[in-house]
Amino acid sequence: MLDAKAERATNLRTADWYKSATRWTQLTLAEDDPVKFDPAFWIDVFKRTKSNAACLSAGGYIAYYPSKVQYHYVSKFIGDTDPFGTLVDGARRLGMHVMARVDPHAIHQDAADAHPEWIAVDKEGNKRRHWAFPEVWVTCAYGDYNQKFMPQVLEEIARDYDIDAIFANRWQGHGVCYCDSCRTRFKAASGFDLPLVSDAEDPAWLAWSAWRRQVLSKLVVEWDEVVKAVKPHASFIPNMGSVSLTEFDLSLIEKHCPFLVVDDQGRRGTESIWMSGRNGKRMRATFRERPAILITSIGPEEEHRWKDSVTTGPEIEAWITNGAAHGMLPWFTKFNGVVPDERWVEPVADAFALHAALEPVLNATVPTAEIALLDPATTLRHHGYETRHKAEADDLGFYRALIEAKLPFELVSDQAMTADMLDTFKVIVVANAPCLSDAQCRMLSDYVARGGSLVVAGETATRTEDNEPRNGLGLGELLGARLAAPVRGPVKNTYVALDGDHPINAGFGGAARIIGGTRLIGVEAAGDAATPFLYVPDFPDLPMEEVYVRGEPTAAAVIAREHTGGGRTVYIPWNIGAIFKDVLAADHQRLMENAVRWALARPSAVEVAGKSVLDVAWRRGRDGDAVILFNLTNPMMMKGPIREVFPVGRQTVSIAVPEGKRFAGARLLVADREAKAEVADGRVVVEVPGIDLLEVAHIAWA
C-alpha cells in the first residue's frame, strides 16, 4: 500500500486527485493582504498542520491575481504582485493539491453601473446594497452575473494557474430576488408571482424552492463544464451548508461533484459539539461513498460575526475531531492573511496530527451501524432558512437521545433510501417526517415486512411529498394506528400515563405518568398492538386550584406492534423529539431509548458503559472493527466555547464477534497501546482506562 505522500504524488493532477486531499488549509485574504501578509508564514502553516491540500482566495468579489476579465475587481493593493499565484506555487512545491476560492455574492460600483441587471432586488423593488458593507451591491445569483460573467472568471483562473478545482462561497444567493429577470423567468416557469414570505404552506413558495433548486443545479453543471474544458482533471466544487443537499438535483451533484464540502464552521448558541459529526452522517445519508469535508473556523461562529478572531484551542480541536470521528475530512479556515493572534495554530496542528495518525485505520474501515435515523429531506426542502431549524427539531432531539444512550447510529436520507440501503440496518427511526410520498411509505412498509423495525414519531406521513394534507396516516396500517383526531397544538400541561408492563415503559421508577408533548395526534390502536403509554385527558394549568386530572387515561400515546416477519414498530404520535431538544427531560430520553432498544429486539452489537457522555461511532473493516469514543463530558457541552477537556475514567466497549470470526487482539489507538480484553458469550469486552477528547478501540478479527 502506498503511504499518504506517495499516494498524493501519484494522484497529483489526475481525475482522482481528491482521494488524497484529506487535510485542508483555507486562507481567505483581506483586500490589503497583498502589502501586509507573509506568504512564508502560510507555507510553514501548511507543513505544521500536515495539510495536503489548500483552498486559496483567487477572485469573484475581489481578484488576488492580475485578472484581465472586464469588471472583475482586482485588489487595489496588488501592485505588481500575484498573491494567489505565490501561494499556489508554494503549496505545489510541497506536493499539495490546490483549489481556488471565488466569492460571487457582491460587486463594486463600476460593475453595478455597467450592469445594473446583475444586482439583486428586494421585495420592495429596491436594489440591494450589501447589508454589512453598503458601498457595494449584492448580486442576483439566478441571472446573468452567475451565468455569463462568472464563467469568464472561472475560465481565466483554470487557464492561468496550476489548480485542481475551483470552490465557490456564497454563490447560492440570499433568498428570493425580485429583479425583472427573476420575476419574468419564474412566472414563465411556474405561473406564480414570486413569493413574499417563506411559508411551506404557500404554493408559490414551494414553486420558487423547486425553481431555485433547478437553477442552482444547472449552474453547478455549467461551471463544472467551464473548468473541465480548460483542465479535464479539475472540477467546480460548490460550498454547501449541512442541509444543502435538499437544495439541489442530487443526480447532477452526484455526476459533477466528486467530493462534498460542508460549510458548518462551528457551533452557535446552545448547540452541542456533536453537531459537527452529524454533518458527516448527513452527507453519507445521501452519498454513501463520497468523501465529505467539514470547514472549521478558528473563531466563534455567532451572529455577532467576529470573523477575524480566535476561539479557545479545545473548542477548535473538539469541532474538528468530532467531525473526523464521523467521517468528515478536516479543513480549517482563516480569514485575513495577517495573523495578530497565533493561538489557533497549535490546536489545529494537534487535531490534524490526530487525524493523520488515525487515517490508516479510517481508510481501512467504513462507518456501520444497526440503527439509522431518517433524514427528512423531502420535508426540509419545503422550508427556508427561517423555518428549517424548527422543522428538524424532532430529529435533533432523537439524535441527542441516541447519543445519551451511547448507541452508534447512522443517518439515511428519505430522498436517497433504497431497499438495499434500508436492509443494512436493524432499526430505522423516523423522528418526524410529515412529507412522505406513497412510494416512500411503501418502501418503509416493505422494510418491516422483510424483518426490519421502525420507531416513528410526530406527524410522520400526514402530508404528501408536495406538502399536501393526506387523508389519514400514510403509515397507519403498518403502525397499527388509525387517525381519530388531527394534530392539535401547541397545548400545555400535558401528560402520558404508563399502561401495563412493557419494556418501553420500564425504568421509570414509581412514576405513574410523565410529561407529554405540545403537538398531539389522536389515534386509535389496532387490536393486536400494545399501548405502553396512554394520553392523560387535558386539564388546565391555571388557576392552580384547577390543576387536576378530570378523567382516566384512554387514548393511545405510544403504540407498539410485533409483525409476522420478525420486525417491530413503535409509534409515538406526539412531538417527543422536539420537546426533548428544548426541555431535556430525562423521561423522554428514556422513552426514546427504550423504544429503540425494544425495536432492536436484542442487545446492540456495540454497547458502551461508563460514567460519561460519549458520542460513539462504529467502523467495520475486513480484518477488524473500530469503535470511536468522542468525549462530550464537559460543562460547556451545550454552550461554547469549550475551555478545557474534562477526561473521563474507565469505560468498557462490548462488541459482538462477527459470524465466522474470532478475536485476535485489541488496541487503543490514541493511547497507542494494547488493550485489556475478555471474550465471553459471543462478545468481546474491551477496557478503556480513560479518555481525554478521543479514544479508538480497534478490535482485530481472525
UniProtKB/TrEMBL annotation:
GO terms for biological process: carbohydrate metabolic process. One of its GO terms (molecular function) is beta-galactosidase activity. Residues 397-465 form the GLMA-like second domain. PANTHER family: GLYCOSYL HYDROLASE DIGH. This is GLMA-like second domain-containing protein.
